[in-house]
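Reminder: ligand-aware prediction takes two inputs, not one.
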Amino acid sequence: MAKGKTRYVCQACGAVAARWAGQCADCREWNTLAEEAAPVFTPFAAKQSLQTGGRRIALESLADEVALPARLSTGMDELDRALGGGLVAGSVTLIGGDPGIGKSTLLLQAAGKMARSGAGVAYVSGEEAADQVRLRARRLGLAKAHVALAAETNVRDILTTLTGMATAPGLVIIDSIQTMHSDTLEGAPGTVSQVRASAQELIRYAKLSGAALILVGHVTKDGQLAGPRVLEHMVDTVLYFEGERSHQYRILRAVKNRFGGTDEIGVFAMGSEGLEQVANPSSLFLTSRTEGASVTGAVVFPALEGTRPVLCEIQALVVRVPSGATPRRAVVGWDSGRLAMLLAVLEARCGLAFGGHEVYLNVAGGLRIADPAADLAVACALVSALTDRPLPGDAVAFGEVALSGELRAAGLASLRLKEAAKLGFGRAFVPESGGDAKGSGPISVAGFRTLGALVDHLARAD
Ligand code: TYD
Ligand code: MG
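Here is what comes back for the chain with magnesium ion:
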């Protein structure tokens, strides 16, 4: 390819094509190819062997002593927790999330708190004007925090400013990477090559200066970081900020962390004064529940979010339909395929027919559950709704249901039981092979081998 030529780059996967096409040949996405200037290519250098002529690098031992990286607290425990204990100097963190979920709010709050504790913080907004950011800071009660603020999108100008600051900042926030552009490249901000080039320059700055860098990334309709997945490979830590905009709670989840585990989450609630930290998430999802009350179709499920137990309420409603009509099944917060499977197991193994009923299932509070241990809680809610008999108000249920109707132990049962006991629950329905579920202090554990046995027990109990 000679100089001045253009090429077509897929904005979803980064594949390069010589000609425009409606569909990317690599990832099969439609309408993702965008025209970009081809990089200058020198055929002579490429033909040379790379086995000679280089500089010798010193090889080191893996066993050499290293100090653990120092952690910089963001002043927000829930954010620190998701980061695996705080920010690491010179590290790069990418925060993704739907528009309006609260990424800018979260980072402005963290910036304010860190500035107050004496750290140098620079906040660069490419999306909002400085006045807008200032107004938001005022609403958040952070107007007096010494955050160096800029509304800018040119990476060269940003880096020149940052390196020229009298005291180098300990934290730099770029909101968002899709608005940044590098003047070394043609093309509009937000294209793969612009995002990649801007990120590369900013990351190099972070590694050289030792500043912790946080990049905000947009998320596309199907939940991926917009444009380049490549960005995820370039950074040290990737966090996703999730939640329903219509609900209060937000979960900050680590999906990649070079400095810690990815099983920790941070929980926040969006309020009138920004994001509040929720140290005890179970209380958030059980707030509307009257203590000890038992309603038909409602079951408390001790879910695990990473290694953190979160109690939530599963609600089922079963409505008779006239014979002949196809009954509806609707699910919010759980997998509808899994519901169909459970209904089939209840019918085939326990003799409970839902065929003449519409079934509605809801996870209260807008939580989305992916934990397979929800099976048993959902089954209990369905049985309770169908038979019109409430479960004991102080009961929780968890465990996996197999197609044979047998119950399988859930992971980290003792953690779930401990959390349930902490919130005043007195008994738990679990699989008999409950793993570490036995002998857990104040909570009485009833183990069942099959779903049928549990259904019988519920039918007999008062
Ligand atoms: P924002 O941080 O701008 O989202 P993002 O940067 O992820 O796009 O979040 C804005 C939303 O949060 C907006 O819809 C209003 C709401 N919000 C509150 O409810 N309370 C507040 O104190 C603030 C600052 C925002
Ligand atoms: Mg924003």
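Residues 6-37 form one domain. The first helix runs from residue 43 to 47. We will return to this case in the review session.
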